[in-house]
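Might you be able to consider the sequence and fold that I enclose below?
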Amino acid sequence: MALWAVLLVGCCDSCKKGQEDKYVVILSMDAFRHDLSQLYDTPTLDSVARVGVFSKVMPCFPSNTFPNHYAMATGRHPDHHGIVNNSFYDKALELSYSIGDDEARVNPDFYKGEPIWNTVERQGQIAHVYTWVGVEAPYEGGFPTNYLLYDVNRSRKELADSVLAALCNPNVEEIPNLTMWYFDEPDAVEHRYSPTSEEVRAVVEDIDATLAYFMREVRKSPVYDKINFIFTADHGMTELSPERYYNIYPLIPGKAKHFFNANPLTLEPAEEDILSVYETLKAHEEEGHYRVWLRDNMPEEYHYGTYTDRIQPIVLLPEIGWKVVYQKEDGKGRPRPKQSSHGFDPFHPDMQMAFYACGPAFKEGYTHDVTFQNLNDHLIITHILGIDPAEGNDCVWEDIKGLFRE
């Protein structure tokens, strides 16, 4: 039995009074850009917007999958929750983290800040989490009551059926107050094709068809009228091209002792070379279609650069749609035609995503006038469930309060 399940057994009835009839189901559709429903046929999501709310949402910096999913869970910026990019090296732990490293992903030492499933269970409610970043690493020894690990071979319908089984449980006391689940699309197909391609159309419309099935079947839940549904994403996506490519290696040949060829691109020269490397890169910003900063001088709006054990001393962010690399072999990593990516400036519209929600807590037929950061999902969930958010969160109530009924 999970630690939080043990705590629930000992929780007095008065602790749960007034809370057991509040429910949130949140789905993250990886890289579901804010305008995909305008480009393609998505009647299910369109209907959610008609009876509920729609908003554009902004990712945290960097606009990549793992940093943002854990931001959504903790209510913290990546610089504050520790997953500073999809891959990084921690000097204090002397360990590397990567989304493809099974051992690293389950190591709780990489994760800082209480995830929402712990927040929920600690306050006497039930959480089920299906394939969300961080759920396999026991924060302070705690797991949600039920969880599934990511499996690339599990279909969207199979995952929907797992969620439905929990929500339609005839034993109401076992139905989770919080359900979190995740689709790895349309991100996977968008990396291979343009967001405006027929291939992406097929996946987006299949996602919507899966949600039509889910929304039809979930009506069988004994608590259906009390469920608040949220459909959102972690980041957007933009198209690359072979022509929008720049290699910084010739500017600073062999100067980076350590580096991550990613968005953002980060470098660690020898201590005595940091300033000269930075100045050289700074002098070529316009030519290279990027912006570069010393880690300690990152723009305030990015909330990035204080986690010095994990963020390298020089941070370089390409312009939207550009691929900038540090490669001895020039041309390596050049994008293919129509290939797409993310990790760019979160304030750019292409990096922003959709937020659909409906249920008893949300307004009806409302389009929100604030593009809020997705870390506020933590506060949205705790507000609906009537519990306290985790300490140390970076959420902003003013940005989201307009979503709710009076």
Remarks:
- Residues 1-18 have pLDDT under 50 and may be disordered.
